[in-house]
């Protein structure tokens, strides 16, 4: 057992005991190394609401450009939202004190209902929020036909 200590005074961090130190896999996330490409950005938060006219998806993707995001409709009415945020380049003379911003790839899939017009999907990105609108087919209400009763 050991305590991982830093020689930098930071009032917001704590001394952390690493219970996995010495195991054959590496769980030490030092400030000078980064995680692999599929690190912590895996779970992009996405809201899905249904209005009378459409299904609307909103994803918070702060700091991402629209060129880094891909919206597709796959077979069987599956909406696929994916992208990749590049990590900041580490310069040799840089000394990182904290690395909290996530980077890596994300991928989310949603099975759309039968009434989705997948050929009319629209997507827009504004202020780090991706909005995907999937129009719905109009539901035709069955017309009631009056039947005359004989007798």
TrEMBL record:
Spell out the Gene3D superfamilies in the cross-references.
Answer: 2.60.40.790
| SHSP domain span | 37-151
Q: Which residues form the signal peptide?
A: none
Q: Matching InterPro entries, A to Z? A: A-crystallin/Hsp20_dom, HSP20-like_chaperone, Small_HSP
Keyword entries, A-Z: Stress response
User: SUPFAM superfamilies this protein is in?
Assistant: HSP20-like chaperones (SSF49764)
Give the family this protein belongs to, as stated in its UniProt record.
Answer: Belongs to the small heat shock protein (HSP20) family.
Question: What protein name applies here?
Answer: 18.2 kDa class I heat shock protein
- UniProt source species: Rhynchospora pubera
């Amino acid at each position: 057992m050991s305590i991982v200590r830093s020689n930098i005074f930071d009032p917001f961090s704590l001394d952390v005991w690493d219970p996995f130190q010495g195991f054959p896999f590496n769980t030490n996330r030092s400030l000078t190394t980064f995680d692999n490409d599929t690190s912590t950005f895996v779970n992009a938060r996405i809201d899905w609401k249904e209005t009378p006219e459409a299904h609307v998806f909103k994803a918070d993707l702060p700091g991402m450009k629209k060129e880094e995001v891909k919206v597709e409709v796959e077979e069987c009415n599956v909406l696929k939202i994916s992208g990749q945020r590049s990590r900041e380049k580490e310069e040799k003379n840089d000394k990182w004190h904290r690395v909290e911003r996530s980077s890596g790839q994300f991928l989310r899939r949603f099975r759309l209902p039968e009434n989705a017009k997948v050929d009319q999907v629209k997507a827009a990105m504004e202020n780090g929020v991706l909005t995907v609108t999937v129009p719905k087919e109009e539901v035709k209400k069955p017309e009631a036909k009056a039947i005359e009763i004989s007798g």
